[in-house]
Amino acid sequence: MIEMTATDLRKDLFRVIDRMLETGESLRIRRRGKVVTFDARVVTDTAMEARIAKFDAAMALGVRDDAADFDPGDITDGAHLEWTPEDNPR
User: Fold this and answer.
1) What's the pLDDT tens digit per position in 31-69?
2) Are strands 27-31 and 2-5 parallel, antiparallel or unpaired?
3) Which of 9, 35, 66, 73 gets the most CB atoms within 10 Å of its CB?
């Protein structure tokens, strides 16, 4: 595990990132008495492609059956609330 202060990290950021990618080491940063830990994990293109495919599959399902006839402009469907100024006294 690589341990350093935030100031040291700022000085050597790219070197530290390269080291993490090469070795898989974690990074522990100390700042104002608190510690933050980062783990090296390379995200591959296949992982991103899997997320995109999952999203596209969900979008292909389309509108739910129970919401297919919903019209946001229809105020006669009983789903709207009535409000009068007396309901909100100041």
Assistant:
1) 999 999 998 877 777 878 888 999 998 888 876 666 666
2) parallel
3) 9
